[in-house]
Design a protein that fits this description.
The chain is mostly helical. It has eleven helices and five strands.
Length: 274
């Protein structure tokens, strides 16, 4: 492994959308053969902020302050720490499996970066610079400059045929794990919960009957569940609107899901990072 030097990197994520939380800090190693090696140790800055938004449904937390990072699912935090620890201990194949299959699909940008890095260097997995470039591009979609730098550096080194292969691999990843796709899936879940398109799953529940929220340990009523779902839905729709660069309807009763899907599909199909 190249010798590393630690650097404090602040998040460029919009604070009202992707709030900060306590996660490990990135390191920059010495450059070897001209390739930047954005790496990690303990106490990294947050590049996993979407998780707070994605996991809010599970946490049952309110969204009035948008301080979503503080409500991150404890099980996911444990998985992040496990993956980071395995990597630090040299258990690269196990770390890669967790980054690739458990964290990257949640929108964890640091994990997505690590999948690319390990693919590029052949660490714990077969080396594949084309796949590495695709994962780097996915990790950089929120515009963090350190992720953009490693992405751009690698893309400059690819031939035109390889760039086309990178485009194809990146397009496939975007349809699976881009922020827009993950948020749209959550919007659909919220709409299904709230109704009225197919009837609310809570329609038969008494508004005053309390049930135990397994994640918070508190008692909640059906009305509270609906209220929280509506707050989450509005927040996620605003987030999609920001990513699309437009104002979109946030009222559950008036959301045009077909039109929203069309807008997201058009954006996801557009590759504008090179």
């Amino acid at each position: 492994m190249p010798k590393q030097k630690v650097a404090n990197r602040g998040s460029t994520i919009s604070p009202e959308l992707w709030p900060r939380r306590e996660t490990p800090r990135h390191c920059w190693s010495e450059r070897e053969n001209g390739l930047p090696d954005l790496h990690k140790r303990s106490n990294r800055t947050n590049h996993r902020c979407l998780l707070g938004l994605l996991l809010l449904a599970a946490s049952g937390a309110g969204a009035t302050t948008l301080s979503l990072g503080s409500h991150l699912d404890s099980q996911t935090v444990a998985i992040q720490r496990k993956a980071d620890g395995l990597y630090e201990e040299g258990e690269f194949d196990r770390a890669f499996f967790i980054y690739r299959n458990e964290l990257a699909p949640l929108g964890d940008k640091y994990a997505q970066y690590m999948v690319g890095y390990m693919r590029l260097t052949g660490t714990g997995v077969e080396a594949d610079p084309i796949l590495a470039s695709a994962w780097y591009r996915l990790a950089a979609e929120r515009g963090q400059p350190e992720f953009e730098e490693v992405r751009d550096d690698l893309l400059r080194r690819l031939s035109e045929p390889d760039l086309l292969r990178s485009d194809a691999a990146y397009s496939k990843l975007r349809w699976q794990y881009s922020d827009l796709v993950l948020l749209l899936d959550l919007v659909k879940s919220d709409l299904e919960l709230l109704g009225p398109r197919t009837g609310s799953r809570l329609a038969g529940s008494s508004s005053q009957v309390a049930t135990l929220d397994p994640r918070t340990g508190s008692m909640v009523t059906a009305d509270q569940v609906r209220s929280r779902a509506r707050e989450r839905l509005e927040q996620r729709l605003r987030a999609i609107g920001r990513l699309l660069g437009m104002n979109i309807e946030t009222d559950a009763e008036r959301v045009d899901l077909a039109e929203l899907e069309r807008l997201v599909e058009r954006e996801v199909e557009t590759l504008s990072d090179r």
